[in-house]
């Protein structure tokens, strides 16, 4: 059975500073939910470090079908974004954005020096972040008559399913959340419980 857990950040990391031949590299790591979260964070960092020559970053979203981007922000090709992304892979985290703002100190570092500096700053940012493990969940909507309520609630309790929303009237509707690896079992349990209806919801 494939894993239904993933690692991500509990909250944004604190700012870290890495210095290399008078250049300053400020590193940050943020948990993100989707691509829309990226732009405002980068804009905030540009305001915070208005003297920064470059704000380079990489992000990754998703679990099995991973979506990612690496941005060099004017640094030589693949000298910043990809080394940062390499650290995201190395820490095996997802739904995360790592950004590094560089303030030039007057001495050129060369491509090798840049790769090393951006990699180190990204590593320090992720090191200082609180990494947590989360479980992938699958949500379902259960629809049933009031007369079937006891049967449904007993099953939910017995299998330790989480109720995320409920509407109890003449017709009842309960939204439940279960571990991704328990999804097939859940569908089978309620499919066998006629006339209860089960509908899979988007994660």
- Please mark out the parts with pLDDT under 50 across 5 or more consecutive residues, or reply none: none
What's the overall geometry?
elongated
Query: What is the residue-mean pLDDT, rounded to a whole number?
Result: 93
Number of strands: 11
CATH superfamily annotation of the largest domain: Impact, N-terminal domain
> What is the H/E order?
EEEHEEHEHEEHEEHE
Protein name: YigZ family protein
Organism: Arenibacter arenosicollis
Family: Belongs to the IMPACT family.
Brief synopsis:
This is YigZ family protein. Helices cover 29% and strands 37% of the residues.
SSE blueprint and pairings:
Elements: E1 5-9, E2 16-20, E3 23-31, H1 38-48, E4 54-61, E5 67-71, H2 81-90, E6 96-103, H3 110-128, E7 131-135, E8 137-145, H4 149-158, E9 162-168, E10 171-179, H5 183-191, E11 197-201
Antiparallel strand pairs: 1-7, 2-3, 3-6, 4-5, 4-6, 8-10, 8-11, 9-10
Polypeptide structure, described:
With 203 residues, the protein is of the alpha+beta class. The protein folds into two domains: 5-134, 2-Layer Sandwich (Ribosomal Protein S5, domain 2); 137-201, Alpha-Beta Plaits. 29% of the residues lie in helices and 37% in strands. The protein has helices at 38-48, 81-90, 110-128, 149-158, 183-191; strands spanning 5-9, 16-20, 23-31, 54-61, 67-71, 96-103, 131-135, 137-145, 162-168, 171-179, 197-201. The strands form three sheets. Strands 2-3-6-4-5 form a five-stranded antiparallel beta sheet, sandwiched between helices. The model has no long low-confidence stretch (mean pLDDT 93). InterPro entries: Impact (IPR023582), Impact_N (IPR001498), Impact_N_sf (IPR036956), Ribosomal_Su5_D2-typ_SF (IPR020568).
């Amino acid at each position: 059975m494939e894993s239904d857990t993933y690692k991500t950040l509990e909250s944004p990391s604190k700012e870290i500073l890495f210095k290399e031949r008078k250049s300053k590299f400020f590193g940050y790591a943020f948990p993100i939910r989707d691509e829309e979260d990226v732009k405002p964070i980068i804009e905030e960092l540009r305001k915070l470090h208005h003297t920064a020559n470059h704000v380079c970053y990489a992000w990754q979203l998703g679990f099995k079908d991973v979506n990612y981007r690496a941005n060099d922000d004017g640094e030589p090709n693949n000298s910043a974004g990809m080394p940062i992304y390499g650290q995201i892979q190395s820490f095996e985290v997802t739904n995360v954005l790592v950004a590094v703002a560089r303030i030039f100190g007057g001495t050129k570092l060369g491509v090798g020096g840049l790769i090393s500096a951006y990699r180190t700053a990204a590593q320090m940012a992720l090191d200082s972040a609180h990494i947590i493990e989360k479980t992938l969940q699958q949500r379902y909507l259960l629809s049933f008559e009031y007369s079937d309520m006891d049967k449904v609630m007993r099953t939910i309790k017995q299998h330790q399913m989480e109720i995320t929303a409920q509407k109890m009237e003449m017709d009842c509707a309960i939204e439940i959340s279960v571990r991704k690896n328990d999804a097939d079992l859940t569908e089978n349990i309620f499919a066998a419980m006629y006339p209860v209806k089960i509908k899979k919801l988007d994660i």
